[in-house]
Write the C-alpha coordinates for this entry.
Amino acid sequence: MNTQLSTPDNLMRKAIFMGLMAVLILILPPSGLCKNPGNMDVSVMHYFNSDMGYKGIGEIFKKFQETTQVRVIENAFGHEEFKNIVLELAAKGYLQDVISYWAGARTQFLVDSEALSPMDALWKTHHLSDLIPKAIAQSATLYNGKHYLVPFGYHCVGFFYNPKLFKRAEISQVPETWDQLLSTCEMLKAKGITPFALGAKNRWPAQFWFDYLLLRTAGPDFRQKLMDGKASYTDPKVIEAMEYWKKLMDNHYFQPGITTEGWTDAADRVIQGDAAMTLMGTWITGYWHGQGKMDTTDFDYFKFPVMDPSIPDVAIGPVDGFAISANSKNPGQARELVQFLLTDLSVQTTWAQSQGALSPNNQIDKKIYSPVMQKALRTVTQADRFAFNYDLATPPPMAEKGLSMLLHFLVNPERYQERLTETQRVAHEIFRP
Protein backbone atom coordinates (compact mmCIF):
# COMPACT_ATOMS: atom_id res chain seq x y z
CA MET A 1 0.00 0.00 0.00
CA ASN A 2 1.31 3.42 -0.91
CA THR A 3 0.83 5.65 2.12
CA GLN A 4 2.77 8.64 0.78
CA LEU A 5 1.30 11.69 -0.89
CA SER A 6 1.35 11.34 -4.68
CA THR A 7 3.19 14.57 -5.38
CA PRO A 8 5.89 15.07 -8.01
CA ASP A 9 8.50 15.49 -5.30
CA ASN A 10 7.52 12.22 -3.64
CA LEU A 11 7.43 10.38 -6.93
CA MET A 12 10.87 11.72 -7.79
CA ARG A 13 12.25 10.74 -4.38
CA LYS A 14 10.75 7.28 -4.74
CA ALA A 15 12.26 6.86 -8.20
CA ILE A 16 15.67 7.96 -6.94
CA PHE A 17 15.40 5.63 -3.94
CA MET A 18 14.37 2.64 -6.05
CA GLY A 19 17.19 3.33 -8.46
CA LEU A 20 19.68 3.58 -5.61
CA MET A 21 18.45 0.34 -4.10
CA ALA A 22 18.69 -1.43 -7.44
CA VAL A 23 22.31 -0.31 -7.79
CA LEU A 24 23.14 -1.22 -4.18
CA ILE A 25 21.66 -4.68 -4.46
CA LEU A 26 23.58 -5.35 -7.66
CA ILE A 27 26.95 -4.26 -6.29
CA LEU A 28 26.69 -5.15 -2.60
CA PRO A 29 28.41 -8.14 -1.14
CA PRO A 30 26.36 -9.83 1.63
CA SER A 31 28.23 -7.83 4.29
CA GLY A 32 26.67 -4.44 3.56
CA LEU A 33 27.29 -1.13 1.86
CA CYS A 34 31.05 -1.38 1.76
CA LYS A 35 33.66 -3.98 0.99
CA ASN A 36 33.86 -6.81 3.46
CA PRO A 37 35.65 -5.23 6.44
CA GLY A 38 38.80 -6.76 7.82
CA ASN A 39 39.29 -8.23 11.25
CA MET A 40 40.22 -4.85 12.71
CA ASP A 41 37.42 -2.95 10.99
CA VAL A 42 33.86 -2.16 11.99
CA SER A 43 31.28 -0.95 9.46
CA VAL A 44 28.71 1.62 10.56
CA MET A 45 25.69 3.14 8.85
CA HIS A 46 24.02 6.12 10.47
CA TYR A 47 21.72 9.11 9.89
CA PHE A 48 23.86 11.83 11.50
CA ASN A 49 24.58 13.67 8.28
CA SER A 50 24.79 17.33 7.36
CA ASP A 51 22.90 19.45 9.94
CA MET A 52 22.32 16.51 12.29
CA GLY A 53 25.83 16.19 13.73
CA TYR A 54 28.04 14.86 10.93
CA LYS A 55 31.11 16.78 12.06
CA GLY A 56 30.73 15.67 15.66
CA ILE A 57 30.23 12.00 14.85
CA GLY A 58 33.29 12.12 12.60
CA GLU A 59 35.42 13.38 15.48
CA ILE A 60 34.04 10.63 17.71
CA PHE A 61 34.80 7.84 15.25
CA LYS A 62 38.30 9.24 14.82
CA LYS A 63 38.87 9.08 18.57
CA PHE A 64 37.62 5.49 18.66
CA GLN A 65 40.08 4.53 15.93
CA GLU A 66 42.97 6.21 17.75
CA THR A 67 42.01 4.58 21.06
CA THR A 68 41.38 1.04 19.83
CA GLN A 69 43.18 0.80 16.47
CA VAL A 70 39.89 -0.46 15.01
CA ARG A 71 39.07 1.27 11.72
CA VAL A 72 35.54 2.64 11.32
CA ILE A 73 34.09 2.23 7.83
CA GLU A 74 31.33 4.83 7.85
CA ASN A 75 28.25 5.31 5.66
CA ALA A 76 26.06 8.35 6.41
CA PHE A 77 22.55 8.96 5.10
CA GLY A 78 19.86 11.59 5.47
CA HIS A 79 16.99 10.75 7.83
CA GLU A 80 14.40 10.12 5.13
CA GLU A 81 16.69 7.96 2.99
CA PHE A 82 17.85 6.01 6.04
CA LYS A 83 14.29 5.08 7.07
CA ASN A 84 13.76 3.24 3.78
CA ILE A 85 17.26 1.90 3.17
CA VAL A 86 17.69 0.31 6.59
CA LEU A 87 14.45 -1.68 6.22
CA GLU A 88 15.38 -2.83 2.73
CA LEU A 89 18.87 -3.90 3.78
CA ALA A 90 17.57 -5.58 6.94
CA ALA A 91 15.12 -7.62 4.88
CA LYS A 92 17.98 -8.84 2.68
CA GLY A 93 20.43 -9.46 5.53
CA TYR A 94 22.75 -6.69 4.28
CA LEU A 95 22.91 -4.51 7.39
CA GLN A 96 26.37 -3.38 8.39
CA ASP A 97 28.02 -4.30 11.70
CA VAL A 98 26.55 -1.34 13.58
CA ILE A 99 23.60 0.91 12.76
CA SER A 100 22.29 4.02 14.41
CA TYR A 101 18.58 3.72 15.09
CA TRP A 102 15.67 5.35 16.85
CA ALA A 103 14.44 3.69 20.03
CA GLY A 104 10.83 2.60 20.15
CA ALA A 105 8.60 1.01 17.55
CA ARG A 106 11.21 1.18 14.79
CA THR A 107 13.73 -0.82 16.82
CA GLN A 108 10.97 -3.22 17.84
CA PHE A 109 10.19 -3.75 14.15
CA LEU A 110 13.81 -4.76 13.43
CA VAL A 111 13.97 -6.96 16.52
CA ASP A 112 10.80 -8.79 15.48
CA SER A 113 12.35 -9.20 12.01
CA GLU A 114 15.39 -10.87 13.66
CA ALA A 115 17.69 -8.28 12.07
CA LEU A 116 19.48 -7.28 15.29
CA SER A 117 21.68 -9.05 17.79
CA PRO A 118 20.91 -8.85 21.55
CA MET A 119 23.55 -7.25 23.75
CA ASP A 120 22.74 -8.62 27.21
CA ALA A 121 26.29 -9.87 27.79
CA LEU A 122 27.68 -6.44 26.94
CA TRP A 123 25.13 -4.87 29.25
CA LYS A 124 26.12 -7.09 32.15
CA THR A 125 29.89 -6.93 31.60
CA HIS A 126 30.02 -3.12 31.50
CA HIS A 127 27.25 -2.53 34.08
CA LEU A 128 25.33 -0.31 31.67
CA SER A 129 22.25 -0.38 33.88
CA ASP A 130 24.21 1.68 36.41
CA LEU A 131 24.92 4.37 33.79
CA ILE A 132 21.53 4.89 32.15
CA PRO A 133 18.51 6.46 33.85
CA LYS A 134 15.93 3.75 34.56
CA ALA A 135 13.15 5.39 32.54
CA ILE A 136 15.31 5.56 29.41
CA ALA A 137 16.77 2.07 29.94
CA GLN A 138 13.32 0.50 30.17
CA SER A 139 11.70 2.40 27.32
CA ALA A 140 14.60 2.60 24.88
CA THR A 141 16.80 -0.48 25.31
CA LEU A 142 14.58 -3.46 26.16
CA TYR A 143 12.72 -5.35 23.43
CA ASN A 144 11.11 -8.74 24.00
CA GLY A 145 12.92 -8.85 27.34
CA LYS A 146 16.44 -8.37 25.93
CA HIS A 147 18.75 -5.40 25.35
CA TYR A 148 19.02 -4.56 21.65
CA LEU A 149 19.90 -0.84 21.66
CA VAL A 150 22.61 1.15 23.44
CA PRO A 151 21.44 4.78 23.76
CA PHE A 152 23.79 7.45 22.46
CA GLY A 153 21.84 10.67 22.95
CA TYR A 154 18.28 11.83 23.40
CA HIS A 155 16.28 14.97 22.75
CA CYS A 156 13.41 16.95 24.16
CA VAL A 157 10.87 18.66 21.91
CA GLY A 158 9.64 22.10 22.95
CA PHE A 159 9.21 25.67 21.76
CA PHE A 160 12.36 27.48 20.64
CA TYR A 161 11.81 31.19 20.25
CA ASN A 162 13.44 34.49 19.36
CA PRO A 163 13.61 36.56 22.59
CA LYS A 164 14.14 39.78 20.62
CA LEU A 165 10.75 39.33 18.95
CA PHE A 166 9.12 38.62 22.30
CA LYS A 167 10.61 41.81 23.64
CA ARG A 168 9.37 43.78 20.62
CA ALA A 169 5.86 42.46 21.28
CA GLU A 170 6.19 43.40 24.97
CA ILE A 171 5.92 39.78 26.10
CA SER A 172 7.57 39.64 29.50
CA GLN A 173 7.27 35.94 30.29
CA VAL A 174 6.93 32.73 28.33
CA PRO A 175 3.47 31.08 28.29
CA GLU A 176 2.82 28.25 30.72
CA THR A 177 -0.83 27.56 29.82
CA TRP A 178 -2.70 27.21 26.54
CA ASP A 179 -4.59 30.46 27.07
CA GLN A 180 -1.31 32.25 27.70
CA LEU A 181 0.09 30.80 24.48
CA LEU A 182 -2.91 32.10 22.53
CA SER A 183 -2.47 35.54 24.13
CA THR A 184 1.20 35.46 23.18
CA CYS A 185 0.24 34.74 19.58
CA GLU A 186 -2.17 37.67 19.50
CA MET A 187 0.42 40.03 20.96
CA LEU A 188 2.90 38.94 18.31
CA LYS A 189 0.37 39.34 15.49
CA ALA A 190 -0.49 42.82 16.74
CA LYS A 191 3.15 43.76 16.05
CA GLY A 192 3.10 42.14 12.62
CA ILE A 193 5.09 39.10 13.76
CA THR A 194 4.18 35.57 12.63
CA PRO A 195 3.89 33.44 15.79
CA PHE A 196 4.90 29.99 14.51
CA ALA A 197 7.30 28.63 11.92
CA LEU A 198 6.81 25.03 10.79
CA GLY A 199 8.79 23.29 8.06
CA ALA A 200 6.83 20.14 7.24
CA LYS A 201 8.21 19.36 3.78
CA ASN A 202 9.50 16.01 5.06
CA ARG A 203 6.34 15.47 7.15
CA TRP A 204 7.96 14.51 10.48
CA PRO A 205 8.23 18.05 11.97
CA ALA A 206 4.41 18.23 11.96
CA GLN A 207 4.10 15.23 14.27
CA PHE A 208 5.22 17.20 17.32
CA TRP A 209 2.07 19.34 17.18
CA PHE A 210 -0.13 16.25 16.95
CA ASP A 211 1.81 14.56 19.76
CA TYR A 212 1.62 17.36 22.27
CA LEU A 213 -1.97 18.38 21.53
CA LEU A 214 -3.08 14.78 22.00
CA LEU A 215 -0.95 14.24 25.11
CA ARG A 216 -2.07 17.49 26.71
CA THR A 217 -5.81 16.89 26.07
CA ALA A 218 -6.35 13.11 25.95
CA GLY A 219 -3.40 12.05 28.09
CA PRO A 220 -0.57 9.53 27.67
CA ASP A 221 -2.62 6.38 28.28
CA PHE A 222 -5.05 7.10 25.46
CA ARG A 223 -2.24 8.21 23.21
CA GLN A 224 -0.40 4.92 23.78
CA LYS A 225 -3.56 2.99 22.92
CA LEU A 226 -3.73 4.91 19.65
CA MET A 227 -0.09 4.12 18.92
CA ASP A 228 -0.78 0.41 19.60
CA GLY A 229 -3.91 0.24 17.46
CA LYS A 230 -6.20 -0.13 20.49
CA ALA A 231 -7.90 3.25 20.00
CA SER A 232 -9.35 4.84 16.89
CA TYR A 233 -8.20 7.86 14.90
CA THR A 234 -11.87 8.83 14.67
CA ASP A 235 -12.22 8.92 18.46
CA PRO A 236 -13.59 12.25 19.78
CA LYS A 237 -10.37 12.72 21.73
CA VAL A 238 -8.34 12.76 18.51
CA ILE A 239 -10.86 15.10 16.90
CA GLU A 240 -10.59 17.46 19.87
CA ALA A 241 -6.80 17.63 19.51
CA MET A 242 -7.10 18.29 15.78
CA GLU A 243 -9.66 21.03 16.43
CA TYR A 244 -7.20 22.86 18.65
CA TRP A 245 -4.64 22.68 15.85
CA LYS A 246 -7.16 23.75 13.23
CA LYS A 247 -8.02 26.88 15.22
CA LEU A 248 -4.35 27.86 15.18
CA MET A 249 -4.35 27.39 11.42
CA ASP A 250 -7.59 29.34 11.03
CA ASN A 251 -6.09 32.22 13.01
CA HIS A 252 -3.12 32.32 10.61
CA TYR A 253 -0.58 31.75 13.36
CA PHE A 254 1.71 29.82 10.99
CA GLN A 255 3.84 31.16 8.17
CA PRO A 256 2.90 30.48 4.53
CA GLY A 257 4.71 27.64 2.81
CA ILE A 258 4.49 25.12 5.65
CA THR A 259 4.64 22.11 3.35
CA THR A 260 7.37 23.44 1.05
CA GLU A 261 9.96 24.24 3.72
CA GLY A 262 12.09 21.95 5.91
CA TRP A 263 12.89 22.15 9.60
CA THR A 264 16.05 24.17 8.99
CA ASP A 265 14.01 26.69 6.99
CA ALA A 266 11.72 27.10 9.99
CA ALA A 267 14.75 27.42 12.27
CA ASP A 268 16.15 30.10 9.95
CA ARG A 269 12.86 32.00 10.04
CA VAL A 270 12.98 32.17 13.83
CA ILE A 271 16.61 33.16 14.12
CA GLN A 272 16.24 35.77 11.35
CA GLY A 273 13.16 37.31 12.94
CA ASP A 274 10.58 36.19 10.36
CA ALA A 275 8.68 34.12 12.93
CA ALA A 276 8.74 34.03 16.72
CA MET A 277 8.65 30.32 17.62
CA THR A 278 9.09 26.82 16.27
CA LEU A 279 8.17 23.51 17.91
CA MET A 280 11.26 21.38 17.48
CA GLY A 281 13.74 19.07 19.18
CA THR A 282 16.88 20.15 20.99
CA TRP A 283 19.03 19.30 17.95
CA ILE A 284 18.00 22.75 16.72
CA THR A 285 20.45 24.22 19.25
CA GLY A 286 23.32 22.39 17.56
CA TYR A 287 22.19 23.82 14.22
CA TRP A 288 22.10 27.36 15.61
CA HIS A 289 25.36 27.01 17.52
CA GLY A 290 26.96 25.99 14.24
CA GLN A 291 25.90 29.39 12.90
CA GLY A 292 27.46 31.18 15.85
CA LYS A 293 24.13 32.00 17.52
CA MET A 294 24.04 32.47 21.27
CA ASP A 295 21.75 30.95 23.90
CA THR A 296 19.22 33.30 25.53
CA THR A 297 20.40 36.17 23.30
CA ASP A 298 19.51 34.85 19.85
CA PHE A 299 17.20 32.02 20.95
CA ASP A 300 15.60 30.54 24.03
CA TYR A 301 13.29 27.70 25.06
CA PHE A 302 10.06 26.89 26.91
CA LYS A 303 8.13 23.65 27.23
CA PHE A 304 4.77 22.97 25.58
CA PRO A 305 2.13 24.64 27.79
CA VAL A 306 -0.35 22.91 30.07
CA MET A 307 -3.83 22.44 28.60
CA ASP A 308 -5.49 20.36 31.33
CA PRO A 309 -3.83 20.41 34.79
CA SER A 310 -5.35 17.02 35.65
CA ILE A 311 -3.41 15.26 32.87
CA PRO A 312 0.13 13.99 33.57
CA ASP A 313 2.96 16.12 32.25
CA VAL A 314 4.71 14.29 29.41
CA ALA A 315 7.87 15.30 27.58
CA ILE A 316 8.43 13.88 24.12
CA GLY A 317 11.45 13.27 21.96
CA PRO A 318 13.58 10.64 20.25
CA VAL A 319 16.30 8.49 21.76
CA ASP A 320 19.13 7.84 19.31
CA GLY A 321 21.08 4.67 19.84
CA PHE A 322 23.29 2.08 18.20
CA ALA A 323 22.43 -1.54 17.49
CA ILE A 324 24.43 -4.50 16.21
CA SER A 325 23.35 -6.40 13.13
CA ALA A 326 22.42 -10.06 13.55
CA ASN A 327 24.68 -10.73 10.54
CA SER A 328 27.62 -8.67 11.78
CA LYS A 329 30.93 -9.91 10.38
CA ASN A 330 32.87 -8.32 13.23
CA PRO A 331 30.65 -8.60 16.33
CA GLY A 332 33.56 -8.13 18.74
CA GLN A 333 34.56 -4.79 17.22
CA ALA A 334 30.88 -3.85 16.98
CA ARG A 335 30.36 -4.40 20.70
CA GLU A 336 33.54 -2.47 21.46
CA LEU A 337 32.27 0.50 19.45
CA VAL A 338 28.77 0.74 20.93
CA GLN A 339 30.13 0.39 24.46
CA PHE A 340 32.70 3.14 23.78
CA LEU A 341 30.06 5.51 22.42
CA LEU A 342 28.05 5.42 25.64
CA THR A 343 30.69 5.04 28.33
CA ASP A 344 33.42 7.44 27.20
CA LEU A 345 32.47 10.73 28.87
CA SER A 346 34.51 12.85 26.46
CA VAL A 347 32.58 11.27 23.58
CA GLN A 348 29.28 11.99 25.29
CA THR A 349 30.38 15.58 25.88
CA THR A 350 31.42 16.04 22.25
CA TRP A 351 28.08 14.71 21.04
CA ALA A 352 25.99 16.77 23.44
CA GLN A 353 27.75 19.99 22.49
CA SER A 354 28.04 19.37 18.74
CA GLN A 355 24.59 17.95 18.02
CA GLY A 356 22.54 19.53 20.78
CA ALA A 357 21.74 16.22 22.49
CA LEU A 358 21.15 15.22 26.08
CA SER A 359 23.39 12.45 27.36
CA PRO A 360 21.91 9.10 28.49
CA ASN A 361 25.02 8.58 30.65
CA ASN A 362 24.04 9.80 34.11
CA GLN A 363 27.69 10.33 35.04
CA ILE A 364 27.97 13.29 32.66
CA ASP A 365 28.59 16.66 34.29
CA LYS A 366 25.44 18.76 33.73
CA LYS A 367 27.68 21.82 33.42
CA ILE A 368 28.53 20.76 29.87
CA TYR A 369 25.07 21.87 28.74
CA SER A 370 24.31 25.33 27.44
CA PRO A 371 21.72 27.44 29.31
CA VAL A 372 18.97 26.51 26.86
CA MET A 373 19.83 22.81 27.03
CA GLN A 374 19.72 23.03 30.83
CA LYS A 375 16.12 24.23 30.52
CA ALA A 376 15.28 21.35 28.19
CA LEU A 377 16.88 18.90 30.61
CA ARG A 378 14.68 20.24 33.42
CA THR A 379 11.63 19.64 31.22
CA VAL A 380 12.56 15.96 31.03
CA THR A 381 13.59 15.49 34.65
CA GLN A 382 10.50 17.26 35.98
CA ALA A 383 8.03 15.52 33.65
CA ASP A 384 5.81 12.72 34.90
CA ARG A 385 6.68 10.65 31.83
CA PHE A 386 8.87 10.63 28.73
CA ALA A 387 7.37 9.44 25.44
CA PHE A 388 8.73 8.82 21.96
CA ASN A 389 7.42 11.07 19.22
CA TYR A 390 4.72 9.71 16.89
CA ASP A 391 6.81 8.04 14.17
CA LEU A 392 8.87 6.23 16.83
CA ALA A 393 5.88 5.25 18.98
CA THR A 394 3.85 3.38 16.35
CA PRO A 395 5.02 0.73 13.84
CA PRO A 396 6.69 2.07 10.67
CA PRO A 397 3.80 1.22 8.28
CA MET A 398 1.38 3.08 10.55
CA ALA A 399 3.81 5.96 11.02
CA GLU A 400 4.03 6.40 7.25
CA LYS A 401 0.27 6.73 6.91
CA GLY A 402 -0.04 8.95 9.96
CA LEU A 403 2.65 11.37 8.82
CA SER A 404 0.97 11.66 5.42
CA MET A 405 -2.34 12.35 7.18
CA LEU A 406 -0.73 15.24 9.07
CA LEU A 407 0.68 16.68 5.86
CA HIS A 408 -2.76 16.47 4.22
CA PHE A 409 -4.15 18.35 7.22
CA LEU A 410 -1.68 21.19 6.77
CA VAL A 411 -2.64 21.44 3.09
CA ASN A 412 -6.39 21.37 3.77
CA PRO A 413 -7.35 21.66 7.46
CA GLU A 414 -11.08 21.69 6.65
CA ARG A 415 -11.06 18.03 5.57
CA TYR A 416 -9.11 16.55 8.46
CA GLN A 417 -11.96 14.28 9.61
CA GLU A 418 -11.98 12.57 6.22
CA ARG A 419 -8.24 11.98 6.60
CA LEU A 420 -8.73 10.58 10.09
CA THR A 421 -11.32 8.15 8.77
CA GLU A 422 -8.97 7.07 5.98
CA THR A 423 -6.11 6.70 8.45
CA GLN A 424 -8.23 4.54 10.73
CA ARG A 425 -9.04 2.21 7.82
CA VAL A 426 -5.32 1.71 7.33
CA ALA A 427 -4.79 1.25 11.08
CA HIS A 428 -7.47 -1.45 11.11
CA GLU A 429 -5.59 -3.39 8.44
CA ILE A 430 -2.18 -2.94 10.10
CA PHE A 431 -3.21 -3.84 13.63
CA ARG A 432 -5.83 -6.52 13.01
CA PRO A 433 -4.91 -9.91 14.58
